Amino acid sequence: MPLELPRLPYDRAALQPHLSAETLDLHHGKHFRGYLDTVNARIEGTELAELPLEEIVRQTQGSLFDAAAQAWNHQFYFQCLHPRAGGDPQGRLGELVTRHFGDAKRLREAFDRAALTLFGSGWVWLVQHSNGALAIQVTRNAGTPLTGESTPLLACDVWEHAYYTDYQNERARYLEAFWKLVNWDFVTAQLRD
């Protein structure tokens, strides 16, 4: 069964003025769709065709892994955003952020530092290690925490297509906008028990 492009969890214009409908059309409608089309073409008629995307990521390598991981990363990223979001994490997540970073401001500073120093394209993640500790992880290109031991909680796409239309080469301005859209409820739901 072919993998289908999931609908955005909000209207394509809902993240404005932080991310434009044009950016979401390009990012979701073109790039994400392209990765899924590539995966579907490569898995058709194989035992992988019956697996969920997450398992395809875990079981493949090379160019199929690249397309599958990019598709999964994008799917996760879009869920990390919401038009009525932002602010600071609350509850259990807020307590963990305080324990491991000092406070939400320090988390954002460390996350931004990682995003701004990543040369080229990739992803910045807030992850939870198996011991419960929170950490920031950077993956290059199609890399994803799914292939390791850590649980992804929050993703920020720092490929240029994620922000060029709205912010040109100003990744720092994109990050400012990103924090206004972070869906902390989704992030909290990813925590290990």
UniProtKB/TrEMBL annotation:
Domain Manganese/iron superoxide dismutase N-terminal as annotated: residue spans: 4-81
Enzyme class: oxidoreductase
Keyword Metal-binding among record annotations: yes
SUPFAM superfamilies: Fe,Mn superoxide dismutase (SOD), C-terminal domain (SSF54719), Fe,Mn superoxide dismutase (SOD), N-terminal domain (SSF46609)
Coiled-coil spans in chain: none
E.C. number: 1.15.1.1
Catalytic activity: 2 superoxide + 2 H(+) = H2O2 + O2
GO MF entries: metal ion binding; superoxide dismutase activity
Annotated InterPro entries: Mn/Fe_SOD (IPR001189), Mn/Fe_SOD_BS (IPR019833), Mn/Fe_SOD_C (IPR019832), Mn/Fe_SOD_N (IPR019831), Mn/Fe_SOD_N_sf (IPR036324), SOD_C_sf (IPR036314)
Membrane-spanning intervals of the chain: none
Family membership noted in the UniProt record: Belongs to the iron/manganese superoxide dismutase family.
PANTHER family recorded: SUPEROXIDE DISMUTASE, SUPEROXIDE DISMUTASE [FE] 2, CHLOROPLASTIC
Cited function: Destroys radicals which are normally produced within the cells and which are toxic to biological systems.
Name of the molecule in the record: Superoxide dismutase
Classification lineage: Bacteria, Pseudomonadati, Pseudomonadota, Gammaproteobacteria, Lysobacterales
